[in-house]
Design brief:
Radius of gyration: 26 Å
Number of strands: 12
CATH class of the largest domain: Alpha Beta
CATH architecture of the largest domain: 3-Layer(aba) Sandwich
Number of domains: 3
Strand order of the largest sheet: 3-2-1-4-5-6
Strand content: 15-25%
CATH superfamily of the largest domain: 5'-nuclease
Oligomer: single chain
Length: about 325
């Protein structure tokens, strides 16, 4: 069957045994960013009190519950039922993609099979979801991050918003505000993404291309995991980047601090530039640097404004010096 153009039609399949009801609102808000949830099914043993939270919100989210009895102790019938339905939906040819909501690695082959058919797979699960399942998806979202922006806007005094059903909320799914913090691995990933998506002709990298690159190389990357609502916010907190916008599109590029530091070191190595205190006139250095590098091309109003952003640069009025063992950005 040929799919109609427009918004993507998505099949949402939820493993209720491995997902708390508290994430429901944020889950469907996130899914709505990528298409229409044409099918919404949730699987579990509905005779179990463990699913009471989901039972209370089935109608609110138009979820179709699918009963899966635990025929054998220790065996998860929910997994098999969900997988069989997923294959039936896949062969129908009516969908552009699937949303698999579970923290169970048993769905790894299913995600891989759906992708082999050319459909997009969005995975949703807790942060302890095995890497195999996360990497098998086109995109993977941590349920701890869902609804984060709305929660931060509505809460008072840093308190987390209340879940749909407090009784079913799990500690690791509670939406707790987190401060902005990027580890070294995240910074390396962002810098590499900028480098690999930079247009050689212009020297600029579109932020949208950076996001696509990261999604393809690390499906579970989410700026909200680091306390940022958007990727652009993370990029703006990186050191040594310049930004510009054209219409609604944002671009960035890395300021070549390493190359500029070599030029500054070459200049300041000349005795004629230094006084007895080993400082140099900013005006004199500016005149030497001007034909060699243009700070205005990188958005700096003047040379001194640029110097103020250089690591290891000490400015004393109208004089300057590089501190020993300066680390380039």
């Amino acid at each position: 069957m040929k799919l109609n153009e427009g918004q993507a039609k998505l099949a949402v399949l939820i493993d209720a045994d491995n997902t708390g009801a508290a994430v429901a609102q944020g889950l469907f808000e996130e899914i709505a960013k990528y298409g229409i949830a044409s099918v919404k099914r949730i699987y579990g043993d509905w005779s179990s009190p463990h699913l009471s939270g989901w039972r209370n919100i089935l109608l609110r989210h138009a979820l179709t519950p699918v009963q899966q009895f635990a025929y054998t102790k220790g065996k998860d019938a929910t997994d098999m039922g969900l997988i069989i339905d997923a294959m039936d939906l896949l062969y129908s040819g009516n969908f552009h993609g699937f949303c698999l909501v579970s923290s169970d690695s048993d769905f790894t082959p299913l995600a891989a099979r759906i992708r082999q058919s050319g459909l997009t797979v969005y995975g949703f699960g807790r942060k302890n979801t095995p890497e195999a399942f996360r990497q098998a998806c086109d995109r993977f979202f941590y349920v701890e991050n869902l609804g984060e922006e709305a929660k931060l806007g509505d809460s008072k005094d840093g308190e987390a918003a209340k879940p749909d059903n407090g009784k079913d909320e799990k500690p690791d799914e509670a939406k707790v505000p987190q401060s902005r913090q990027m580890d070294e691995a995240a910074q390396r990933l962002l810098y590499k993404a900028i480098k690999d998506t930079t247009n050689e002709a212009t020297g600029w990298a579109p932020v949208s291309h950076i996001g696509q690159y990261i999604n393809q190389t690390q499906p579970d990357f989410d700026s909200r995991s680091y306390g940022y609502g958007k990727l652009s916010g993370m990029l703006r907190d990186l050191r040594g980047l310049q930004f510009r916008t054209e219409g609604t599109q944002m671009f960035c590029r890395k300021i070549p601090y390493r190359d500029v530091l070599k030029l500054l070191s070459e200049c300041l190595a000349k005795p004629s530039f230094l006084n007895a205190q080993s400082t140099a006139s900013i005006d004199a250095v500016e005149k030497w640097m001007k034909p060699r590098w243009s700070w205005s091309d990188y958005g700096f109003a003047d040379f001194k404004s640029f110097l103020e952003t250089v690591d290891g640069m000490e400015i004393q009025g109208e004089r300057m010096r590089l501190l020993p063992k300066t680390q380039a950005r």
